[in-house]
Specification:
The protein is of the alpha/beta class and 404 residues long. The protein has 13 helices and 16 strands. It is elongated. The N terminus is likely disordered. The structure holds alpha-D-galactopyranose.
């Protein structure tokens, strides 16, 4: 083949497949065509709080707690049952069913309960033959959806499921191709006619495959988070550079919140929540909502931080400064302000300084600074801002330029 012809054929492939030469919002393929998750999904998921130790009472209690704590009013919508809801075998007709001891009333009753109070239900499945709990924790049964995709999607739709987490779990050992396997369930869900937000976890999580935004509403970008500061920072570090993939309907998923879990302090909880909001991450609480202290509730329901997460002005937030222990992350907001997180990874308080350029307003000297955690607003004409940031913590500002 001569060179000119090769170029023409390559261009044809690019046009037909929708593959773009360089990643980025302007050239990337279309997002999953289900019209859902136009803002990052918000809700609660059972895994970080309970692992495999779940039953219908805990899920019902989470539904009720979302209402009584005010989290529903704050925007939390999905109550997601993670792994370990299944009986150890399919039915005679090959259908999945819930564990009859821990979920005696079945999944549909939980979906009905959620729907009755204006919430939605999420569920968990996998594209291979096994779930992760089967692989890593000895949960009984080979319950993956391989070969049952249409049947399982129809089952989920009949139960009233509104959100599916489809988790890779070594499906390569079953010969599943990631793009094909995840696309099969996307299409099976679409065929049910029920709107179902589609969350995928492909391993390895990075590099982010070009097809993910066209297949799923959200995709994991790291392995599993755990409830410690080091894990939160490790996940954060792996988000650098991923901003080009996310947009309404298709979000990077740096895993669920650990706010309120383990030994995380209030400063660390605020830091994770701030940074996840800046990243337009799905906000899936992972704590026990029935025992949540007011301090944790206040973090999870901070309306101004949630508003940053839900705001789309063309890009998720990204890191603009890093000297090791101190970082600055910025996100443009739709009204023209910047959301700015000043992060102190170190163990003692530190002064972090941001230039006008780092704040997103080169050449500007006057700023209004609205602190999203204290609620205070201050002004400066210094051209830079310098602020004391607590150890293992953040200061989170909405920055307005004063161009007068
Ligand atoms: C994987 C996922 C977790 C959780 C577990 C359940 O590890 O990454 O989020 O769903 O499986 O087994």
């Amino acid at each position: 083949m001569n060179r000119a012809r090769a170029v023409v054929e390559l261009l044809a492939v690019v046009l037909v497949t929708g593959l773009a030469v360089a990643p980025g919002p302007a050239t990337a393929p279309a997002v999953a065509d289900n019209g859902l998750a136009r803002t990052p999904p918000m809700g609660w998921n059972s895994w970080n709080a309970y692992g495999c130790d779940i039953d219908q009472d805990k899920i019902r209690a989470a539904v009720d707690a979302l209402v009584t704590t005010g989290m529903r009013e704050a925007g939390y919508r999905y109550v997601a049952i993670d792994d370990c809801w299944q009986a150890d075998a399919r039915t005679d007709t090959g259908a999945l069913r819930a564990d009859p001891t821990r979920f005696p009333d079945g999944i549909k009753a939980l979906a009905d309960h959620a729907h009755a109070v204006g919430l939605d239900l999420g569920l968990y499945a996998t594209p291979g033959t096994r779930t992760c709990a089967n692989i890593y924790a000895g949960y009984p049964g080979r319950l993956g959806s391989l070969g049952h995709e249409r049947q399982d999607a129809a089952t989920f739709a009949a139960w009233g499921v509104d959100y599916l987490k489809y988790d890779w779990c070594l499906a390569e050992q079953d010969g599943v191709d990631p793009q094909a396997g995840f696309t099969l369930m996307r299409d099976a869900l679409a065929a049910t006619g029920r709107p179902v937000v589609y969350s995928v976890h492909r391993q390895p999580q990075q590099p982010v495959d070009r097809w993910r935004p066209a297949v799923a509403n959200l995709w994991r970008t790291t392995g599993d988070i755990s409830a410690d500061w080091g894990s939160v920072l490790d996940v954060l570090d792996r988000q650098v550079g991923l901003e080009r993939y996310s947009r309404p309907g298709a979000w990077n998923d740096p895993d669920m919140l650990e706010v309120g879990n383990g030994p995380l302090t209030l400063a660390e909880d605020r830091a994770q929540f701030s940074l996840w909001a800046l990243l337009n991450a799905p906000l899936l609480a992972g704590n026990d909502l029935t025992t949540m202290p007011e301090s944790v509730r206040a973090v999870l329901t901070n309306p101004e931080v949630i508003a940053v997460d839900q705001d789309w002005a063309g890009t998720q937030g990204y890191r603009v400064f890093d000297d090791g222990d101190h970082e600055i992350w910025r996100k443009p907001l739709s009204g023209g302000d910047s959301a700015v997180v000043l992060l102190n990874r170190g163990t003692s308080a530190a002064t972090v300084t941001a230039t006008a350029e780092q704040l997103g307003f080169p050449g500007v000297t006057g700023f209004g600074l609205h602190d999203l955690w204290t609620g205070q607003t201050t002004t400066t004409r210094a051209g830079t801002i310098s602020v004391s940031v607590p150890p293992h913590g953040v200061v989170f500002y909405r920055v307005s330029p004063d161009r007068g």
